[in-house]
Amino acid sequence: MKAEHAKQLEQLQHLLPEMAQLIASLIGLPRALKLIEAWGGTTFPISKNQRRQGQVRYEALAEVVGVDAADILTQHFGGEVLAIPRCAAALRAMRNQQIRDSFDTLTRHHPASHAVHQLARQYQITERQVWSVLKTATDWACNERQAVLF
C-alpha cells in the first residue's frame, strides 16, 4: 500500500463506526477495510475454530483478512456473531478524495470536462456528482490546513 494511501486511511479513521475502529485496532486498518469491503453490512459468526463448520468459517475469514488477522479476530470475538459495519461515510470520503486526486492528475494533460467524464465512468457515478465532489472540500483536509495556521 502506498504511504499516501495509508495516510489517507488514517485521516478518515474517525469516520468509521465504533465496531470498525475496534476491528481496525485489532488487525490494522488495511485489513479491516478488506473485511468491510468483502462483508460490510452483514453479520458473520466468528467461530472458535473447533468444529468443522467453525473451521470453514475461519478459512473464509482468513481468505479475506489473512491467517494472522483471522487468528486475532477468532481470539477476540470467538463464539460471537460479528456485525460488520458498511462504513459508508468513510468509504465515500475515501472515494471522493481519490476522485479529487485523479482529477488533479488527469487535468495536467486533458481538459477538465474530459477528466470529469472519465472519472464518472470509472467510479460509476454521474458527471454532475463528480463536479459536486470536486467542489466540496474534505473536512480532514481543512482541519489539516487549519492546524498549520495555529
The geometry reads as elongated
Oligomer: single chain
Radius of gyration: 19 Å
| Low-confidence region ranges | 144-150
Helix content: over 70%
Mean residue pLDDT: 86
Cα end-to-end separation: 31 Å
Strand content: 5-15%
For the secondary structure, the number of strands is 2
Could you say how many structural domains there are in total? Answer: 2
> How do the SSEs run, as a string of H and E?
HHHEHHEHHHH
Q: What class would the helix/strand composition place it in?
A: mainly alpha
Organism: Aquitalea aquatica
Domain Mor transcription activator: 52-148
Pfam families: Mor (PF08765)
Protein name: DNA transposition protein
Structural commentary:
This protein is mainly α and 150 residues long. The protein has two domains: 1-86, no CATH class; 90-147. It is built from nine helices and two strands, in the order H-H-H-E-H-H-E-H-H-H-H. It has a two-stranded antiparallel sheet with strand order 1-2. The two termini are 31 Å apart.
